[in-house]
Amino acid sequence: MHVSLGSKMISVVEYRARCSSLLGAMQSRALDLTVFSPGPDMLYFSGYYDSPSERPLLFLMPADGSDAFFFVPELEREHVARSTWVGSLFDWKDGTDPWSGLRECVRKLRIQRVAFDGSMRADWLLPLLKALGDPFPLDSNDLVRPLREVKSVTEVGLLRKAGEIAGNAFGKILPQLEAGVTERKVAQILETEMLAEGADSPAFPTIVAAGANASVPHHLPTTKVLKSGEPVVIDFGAQFQHYNSDMTRTLFVGHPDNEFQTAYDAVKVAQAAGFERARAGSEARAVDNAARESLRMNSFAEYFIHRTGHGIGLQVHEHPYINFSNPEKLLPGVCFSIEPGVYFGGKWGIRIEDIVTVTDKEMEILTPFDRELVRL
C-alpha cells in the first residue's frame, strides 16, 4: 500500500519502531490500551495529522499484541487511509452514535487501565471512558514524552532543514529592512520568503518587536515603524514536513550606543556559555545556569526573565525545558533552543536564539546564521 505520510522522510520502519517502543512502555506499566486524538502524538506514531473537529477521530493501540487501529468518521476514511501506514480503520457514519461503534471495535479487548493523550477534548474523553467501560484513566505523556524527546537521525535532518530554510529566508530579507517599514510588513515579507525557500508554513506567528516593544518577549507585530536609533527583535521559524525551527535575532537601525552594544555582547557571550554546556550527559539546568551565570557576571542577570530554552520537534515548544530547576540529563538526539535575553521595560530588549542538538561527542547548531549584531 502506498501512503503519503505526515513526514515523507519518516519511513514506515521508523513508525513501526516508535509503536514498538510505545508498546513496551505500555506493557511495563500494565496498561491495556493507549488512545490518541488528532495532534502531535498521533502524528508521531501514525503519520496522520489534522486538527480535531466535533467528529471523534482516534488512534488506538492495544497492549495485547492486536493491531493498532484508527476509529474515524466515514467522511475522513479516505484521507486517513492515504496518510498513514496503519492498515486497520473502522469508520462510523454521520447520524449514528460513534461511541456505540467504538464499543463494538474494542469488545474483545480486556480493558482496565487506559492512557489518553492529555490534549484530548473533554467532550470526547467523557463518553470515551464510558464506551470503554470506565477504565482507570492515565495521561499518556509519561509514555510518549521520553520517546519524542530523543530524535532519530531522520528527525534531526528535518529540523536541520527547517533551520536552513528560516536562516536563508532571513538573510534574503535583510536588504529590504530599513527605517519606516512597519513591524507587520517585516513579518509578512519574512513569512513569504520562508514559503519561497520551501517551508510548508511558518512554525508560529512571527514576532517583530521594534524599539520599546522589544522589551516584551512575545510582542505581536503592529503598525509601529522601524526607527533610527532603535533595536528590532525578530523571532521566527519555519515548519518543514511537520518539524519546526525557531530562531531569534536582534537588529539595530543605525548605530547603537555603548549601553546597548554592551548588553548585546553580554547576551551573545551568555548564549555561548550555554552552548558550552550543551553536551550529552549534562543536566538541562546546567545549560540554563551557565547562561544565567554569564549574565550575572556582566550585571544583567536581573533582566533575564525567562528560561534559557525549550525542546523542539513536532511542536515548537516541547520537552526538555531548559530551566534552572530541571535536573533531566540531556541524551544524544535531544534538540532544544538556547535563547538568553535581557529586557528593560518600556525601553528595549535583546534576545539571541538558536536550536541545537547533542550527540555522543558534540553539539550541533541547527540554525546556522551569524550572531553578530546586524545594523540596518
How is the secondary structure organized here?
Elements (H helix, E strand, L loop, with lengths): L11 H17 L4 E4 L3 H7 L11 E5 L6 E5 L3 H7 L4 E5 L5 H9 L6 E4 L5 H10 L4 E4 L1 H9 L3 H21 L9 H14 L4 E2 L4 E4 L20 E6 L1 E3 L2 E2 L2 E6 L5 H20 L6 H14 L11 E3 L6 E5 L12 E4 L2 E4 L3 E4 L2 E5 L4 E3 L8 E2 L1
Parallel strand pairs: 1-5, 3-4, 5-6, 12-20
Antiparallel strand pairs: 1-2, 2-3, 7-10, 8-9, 9-12, 10-11, 13-14, 15-18, 16-17, 18-19
The CATH superfamily of the largest domain is known as Creatinase/methionine aminopeptidase superfamily
Low-confidence stretches: none
What's the order of the H and E elements?
HEHEEHEHEHEHHHEEEEEEHHEEEEEEEE
Helicity, as a percent range: 25-40%
**Outline, from the CA principal axes?**
elongated
Task: Estimate the strand proportion.
Answer: 15-25%
Number of domains: 2
Tell how many strands the DSSP assignment holds: 20
Mean pLDDT: 95
Lateral strand order in the biggest sheet:
4-3-2-1-5-6
In the CATH scheme, the class of the largest domain would be Alpha Beta
Q: Tell me what the CATH architecture of the largest domain is.
A: Alpha-Beta Complex
Number of helices: 10
Structural class: alpha+beta
Q: Ends: how far apart?
A: 53 Å
